[in-house]
Write a structure and sequence with these properties.
With 186 residues, the chain is mostly helical. The protein has 8 helices and no strands.
């Protein structure tokens, strides 16, 4: 699963950075985040958490939505870029698995598929600091798409509680069932 996670986090964060740049915010480019170098995107704490807690995270790409000509729309698009890249990676890995690769290629594709599908689903949850907390406000008229950084830690603690109490299983179990049903070997 580790190659899937490294690939997934790297492409996810690079997609946020590239889309923000293409839409008019050059902050991520100035910070060197438009890169497929995993070390630019892996968080030290998030990587350590992977081994201790069983899940991890990357270093979020900073976006200044006020650099966008159409802030709400472009913030929505740049926020969707990460989960969309994970869906693309999962679909590509699944497609390769239908070609029936052997050995290491099959194992890597399996990890890329599962990890990226889960990254996409989890990141669409409307809980900060996940991408869904940036996406959903952009879709609701009259709601501001930015969240105060003061609330960020509180939401992070809530997210950890949801993970540790098994509350996330409510969302993930049906998704896992669907993901396994799509595999070429059932």
């Amino acid at each position: 699963m580790l190659p899937g996670l490294i690939i997934g986090i790297t492409v996810h964060e690079a997609s946020h950075a590239l889309s923000a740049k293409l839409l008019g915010d050059g902050l991520s480019q100035r910070q060197g985040r438009i890169s497929l170098n995993p070390f630019r995107h892996l968080s030290l704490l998030g990587t350590a958490a992977l081994f201790v807690l069983g899940f991890g995270w990357g270093k979020p790409v900073e976006v200044n939505l006020y650099n966008f000509k159409r802030p709400k729309l472009y913030y929505l698009l740049s926020s969707l870029a990460g989960p969309a890249s994970n869906i693309f990676l999962a679909a590509a890995a699944l497609g390769i698995m239908y070609l029936r690769p052997h050995g290491l290629v099959a194992l890597i594709c399996y990890g890329v598929y599962l990890v990226n599908a889960m990254l996409a689903v989890v990141n669409l949850l409307p809980i900060p600091p996940l991408d869904g907390s940036k996406i959903w406000p952009c879709l609701i008229p009259g709601v501001r798409p930015a969240i105060s950084k003061n609330w960020g830690r509180l939401w992070l603690i809530l997210l950890l509680i949801i993970f540790f109490t098994g509350g996330i299983a409510f969302v993930l179990k049906p998704v896992f069932n669907l993901l396994f049903s799509l595999l070429p070997w059932k």
